[in-house]
Amino acid sequence: VKVVVRVRPLSNGELGRGERNTVEVADDQRSLTVVDGMRQFNFDACLSPDTSQPEVMIKCGVPRLLDSALHGYAATIFAYGQTGSGKTFSMSGREELIERQGWAGGGGDDGIMTRSLAHIFAAVNRAGPGVKFRVKCTYLEIYNEAIYDLLSGDNERQLTERWEPQRGFYVPDLVTVDCSCLDDALAVVARGTRNRRVGSHELNKDSSRSHSMMTVHVESHASRDGVTMSKFGKVSFVDLAGSERLKSSKSEGSMVKETGNINRSLFMLGKVIAMLSDGEKNNHIPYRDSKLTKLLMDSLGGSSLALMIACCSPSSNHMEETLSTLHYATRARNIINRPSVMQDPTQALISNLRHEVELLKKENAVLRGQLGL
Ligand code: ADP
Ligand code: MG
Fold it and tell me: Are 48 and 10 in contact (CB under 8 A)?
């Protein structure tokens, strides 16, 4: 799991109250220091407050991740951090704009989601005549251990996940929107964002207590010599609930009792990450203990490519939360995934056999040459 830390600028309010900046990002953008704690942390990248949204894409290696999805891999990008640390800003940009039109129009504030969709459709439109792409989107939210569809327009209907050996966990009843162009996909983002907001009023919840997950499925069908090869890539964008919810529970026992105000999914995610980063192979990893860890099962220690963007506030007032985020992110960095292409097994077999036939033909030609035939 690749981990990038993004430090947001001090807000006007924080500056007005005279709060100090406590996080220093090193010039090489590989490490940062929490000033008062005198502690240094190393990550795949550390992004200072002046990093622009387009720079975030590049420094997080998002285009490469998307290209992998286009080639049949599963990829997950998730934003972690306390409420107000910049998770939604990083993933979606400014919500007000997204809600209205899908994105800010390619301007400076667009987040990773809309920029990624633009990247995906640019690649799809460039594809040669032998390759057909199909792009489909889903958008869900997990709140209080219930899954809601952000695209169905029914904000109160709870959905259930299902398990299949081939697919892992998935949600069968999700609305899946076929997107034939970038505008279609941006409309999905706008609708999901709008419903997330509406839902938060109706159910007396807010986005700092819910996780949202948008998944873009990219199927490709390539024809060669009359045989079609299909690959099923996907990329999920996960905006996690505020990590300060974790603090209120030190033990799992007390957590279960207080499910009303503590986020079980976020707690279990922390536990799963801690266990995976310990690297003990025989440990039973409790993926099945929360909705979020079920749906992220493949992204953590599985066959996905994963990127965590740990968001931090630089303010002296939030130092404790920032340190806790950095420790969490450090653990996530120790997780090793084994990415693999998702392919139709029959087609994969054909492809392998075909490859073998090619090799045998070559070998045969060489042998025949040696025999002077
Ligand atoms: P979270 O989703 O983690 O609760 P938000 O993304 O909503 O936090 O960010 C809180 C506020 O800070 C928002 O008003 C957002 O626009 C602003 N903000 C966050 N990150 C940045 C940034 N890198 N540059 C400028 N403003 C930011
Ligand atoms: Mg948010």
Answer: no
